[in-house]
Design a protein that fits this description.
This protein has two domains: 290 residues, 3-Layer(aba) Sandwich (Aminopeptidase), CATH 3.40.630; 129 residues, Alpha-Beta Plaits, CATH 3.30.70.360. The protein is an alpha+beta fold. The strands form five sheets. A six-stranded mixed β-sheet has the order 1-2-7-3-8-16, with helices on both faces. A four-stranded antiparallel β-sheet has the order 4-5-18-17. A four-stranded antiparallel β-sheet has the order 11-12-10-13, with helices on one face. A hairpin with a 7-residue loop joins strand 17 and strand 18.
Length: 425
């Protein structure tokens, strides 16, 4: 652990540059890096790394190179411009333990702009919170890691171990950005992902499956709607059947050691619906894109079979779908859950950093969302997920609390100094 004087210098360096950190975060969150449009964000992050003297590896992801790897999820969008950016710090002398610090720059769509208090890609500070799409999830966390390393430098110190600072994409849809770093060979003794967790350590997280249900109907003019078969109404019947599956899975979660105390941990969401061609025609097609969570330890193949069986059973009870069965397609995440085994040296190091910054014991969280931690855990790398306090992620007026962000940056800086070791620059 860094000496008390070194720790104090690091904390003071975080505080001295926090206004600059927020200004950089505002610039970063001003870029509308929705799916397929992440390149300007990756350009900015690569520039920030180069300005600090890091080695920069900036490459185009080839989805075909990742097929067959654990946790690969199918990608359906144009992937020709998908990039990963990694900045590497190499120490003058090596005596500490290596580290990956990772954030994602992709964000979900903003939705109707008139429903935001202020424009989603014009971030603003109000009452101690930074508002904007991606400000919380998770551009502020990515830059907290960058500025934590800056603080060590400005305290007159330098880490004594290799550090990879990674900006990935596709965290919100397939996870292929993080998977690409694993495929490219990036490894370390530990990984820290500063997602917004309310200052808690993620002990367990759900897995996630994305799937699409394709429903067909029989078109007819509405004046004789009875001779047709309405695909949109049929899709609603299938959604209700999947809600029953959701209820069954949550009943099973009552016996899970991590999620038994969490109310309704496994959430099913029909997130996109498209169907029909004309308001006066009985719709002949309807596609519903869905997300459902699974417990850690559950196998993807078994859960996929349950989803397919649920849809088939509901179709057999439907007068039209019984002879015209819907199709189930896997359309994104195929990700297992994750649990962090207690007692690792990395966790002990984070607990010390937390105690120095916050005081008290580091709280734990069973997370009903998904993060990229699973990729590193599945390759034997202890992966910690810990970050600031946020509100309304994926919703209108997403925001991150600035005081909690400062505390997170301080904790990351002390964690790095302890884990990697430091020497006088």
């Amino acid at each position: 652990m860094a000496a008390a004087g070194a720790q104090q210098s690091i904390l003071e360096a975080v505080d001295a540059r926090f206004d600059e950190q927020i200004a950089t975060t505002i610039a970063f969150a001003s870029i509308p890096s929705t799916r397929g449009a992440e390149a300007p964000c990756q350009d900015m992050f690569a520039d920030l790394l180069r300005a600090r003297g890091y080695e920069v590896d900036d490459w185009v992801i080839r989805a075909d190179d990742l097929k067959g790897l654990r946790d690969f999820g199918p990608v359906e969008t144009d992937f020709s411009r998908a990039r990963t950016v990694v900045g590497t710090y190499r120490p003058a002398t090596t005596s500490g333990r290596s580290l990956i610090l990772q954030g994602h720059c992709d964000v979900v769509p903003a939705g109707p702009l008139e429903m935001w208090t202020t424009p989603p890609f014009a971030p603003q500070v109000r009452d101690g919170w930074l508002y904007g799409r991606g400000a919380a999830d998770m551009k502020s966390g990515t830059l907290a890691a960058l500025y934590a390393l800056d603080a060590i430098h400005h305290a007159g110190l330098r880490p004594t171990a290799r550090i990879h600072l990674q900006s990935v994409i596709e965290e919100e849809s397939t996870g292929l950005g993080a998977l690409s770093t694993v495929q490219r060979g990036y490894r370390a003794d530990a990984c820290l992902i500063p997602e917004p967790t309310g200052g808690a350590l993620v002990r367990a997280q759900v897995g996630v499956i994305w799937f699409r249900v394709r429903v067909r109907g029989r078109p007819a003019h509405v004046f004789e709607a009875g001779v047709g078969a309405n695909a949109i109404k049929a899709a609603m019947d299938l959604i209700r059947a999947l809600e029953a599956l959701e209820a069954d899975w949550n009943a099973r979660a009552a016996d899970d050691p991590h999620f038994a105390s969490v109310k309704h941990p496994l959430n099913f969401n029909p997130g996109i619906i498209k169907g029909g061609d004309w308001a006066s025609s009985v719709p002949s097609w309807c596609d519903v894109d869905c997300r459902i969570a699974i417990l850690p330890g559950w196998t993807l193949a078994d859960r996929q079979k349950e989803i397919e069986a649920c849809v088939k059973a509901a179709a057999r009870a439907h007068p039209f779908l019984a002879d015209n069965p819907p199709e189930v397609e896997w359309s994104g995440f195929l990700s297992e859950g994750f649990t962090l085994a207690p007692g690792s040296a990395a966790e002990a190091t984070l607990r010390r950093a937390y105690g120095s910054v916050y005081g008290g014991d580091l709280p734990e969280l069973s997370f009903t969302a998904i993060t990229d931690t699973r990729y590193y855990a599945h390759h034997g790398i202890p992966c910690l997920c810990f970050g600031a306090t946020a509100r309304r992620m994926h919703g209108f007026d997403e925001c991150v609390e600035l005081q909690s962000l400062k505390q997170t940056t301080r904790a990351i800086a002390l964690f790095v100094a302890d884990w990697c070791g430091v020497e006088t620059a």
